[in-house]
Amino acid sequence: MEMLIVSSEQQKRLIMLFIRKKASMSDKALLNNLDAHQINSSVYPAFKQAFDLRVERISLPAYDEKVAKHQGGDFLYRYLSKGYICLGNYTGEPKPDLTPWGVRSVRMLPKVGFGL
């Protein structure tokens, strides 16, 4: 299983994509194909146009959901603690677990996403 984080440092925004097996496409192909991913956020069209998008690939163990949730939460927390806003809803499979870092709930921004 793989979690992909596409982020823009200038906009301080990111999206998370979960893939059951390793993504076979390159980072460049993924960035060129962002229209294929439905993200429920009013600012997603502007995010896709950012010139500084980068991709981070995180391998998650498919056999242990608890460990996968913890690792996903670790990477997500690294971004959120720097002030990033995650576009879309706080969902995913596995849903990242932020409780080890003291986060009990995220701050929802209507029609945009969530942050700390």
> Kindly, what is the distance between the CA atoms of the first and last residues, rounded to a whole number of angstroms?
26 Å
What strand line-up does the widest sheet have? 3-1-2-4-6-5
| Domains (count) | 1
| Number of alpha- plus pi-helical segments | 3
Percent of sequence in beta strands:
25-35%
Structural class: alpha+beta
Computed Rg? 13 Å
Coarse morphology: globular
Order of helices and strands: EEHHEHEEE
Mean pLDDT: 89
**Fraction of residues in helices?**
10-25%
Instruction: Give start-end ranges of low-pLDDT stretches.
Output: none
The tally of strands reads 6
Question: Which helices and strands, and how do they pair?
Answer:
Blueprint lengths: L1 E7 L4 E7 L7 H6 L11 H5 L4 E7 L5 H16 L4 E3 L19 E3 L3 E3 L1
Parallel strand pairs: 2-4
Antiparallel strand pairs: 1-2, 1-3, 4-6, 5-6
Structural features:
single chain, 116 residues, alpha+beta, six-stranded mixed β-sheet, 3 helices
Brief digest:
The chain is α+β, with helices and mostly antiparallel strands and 116 residues long. The protein has helices spanning 27-32, 44-48, 65-80, and strands at residues 2-8, 13-19, 53-59, 85-87, 107-109, 113-115.
